[in-house]
Amino acid sequence: MKNRWIAFLTLLVGAISIASCVDPDQTQEVILERDKEAIAKYLLENPISSVKEYSEPIEGFYMFWQVSTDPKINNLLRGDTVTVDYAGKLLSNKYFDTSKEQFAKDQGIYNSTRNYTPLKYPLGYGLTISGFEFAVSLMREGEKATVIFPSRLGYGSQPQGPVPSNSPLIFELELKNVKLGVNHLNP
Q: PPIase FKBP-type domain: which residues (predicted)?
């Protein structure tokens, strides 16, 4: 009987401990609103020049094309293989990653054990963070764009190397090449 009470008290203390760890300021809705405010402030203080724009303000997603190509070129579909040069940074304008070696050296983020090449992957399989993937899906071969999005479309509450948890992200993208997949053959 005594062991049951000890087990019960242990469970009770554990449950109270877990409940007290839930920070009401860290709900997904609060984090999204905080991210959207930070993104709006960033864009106000750091206007991004563009020839074309796309935005979903409710989601906090903004995209600005510096180079745009013929809109008659095929839309990207799931399974198309894309080759993308990129540079990622935080709202502090501090770069944390890039596919370009010289740029990494210039920004002080060079890693001699890394192979700096454009990122090549099949679109639509979740192989990159969702904000990056969505932005690339809106592009056409030869286009350059800057995208900014909230943390939930990036790494969320999980820190990733130099990227702190709940960090909105900015990516400068160049879609170098597209190899159309089978979905273009069977519309």
A: 79-179
DSSP annotation string for 92-140: TS-EEEES-HHHHHHHT---TTS----EEEETTSS-S-HHHHHHHHT--
pTM comes to: 0.84
Largest CA distance in the chain: 77
Q: Specify the amino acid at residue 57.
A: P
pLDDT, tens digit, 9 for 90 and up, residues 8-28 = 444 444 444 444 454 555 699
Residue-wise pLDDT tens digits, 103-120 = 999 999 999 999 999 999
Burial (CB < 10 A; 0-12, 13-18, 19+), residue 59, is middle
Domain range summary for the chain, segments of one domain joined by +: 26-184
Q: How far apart are CA 131 and CA 114, in angstroms?
A: 24
The type of residue at 58 is I
Q: How far apart are CA 114 and CA 99, in angstroms?
A: 10
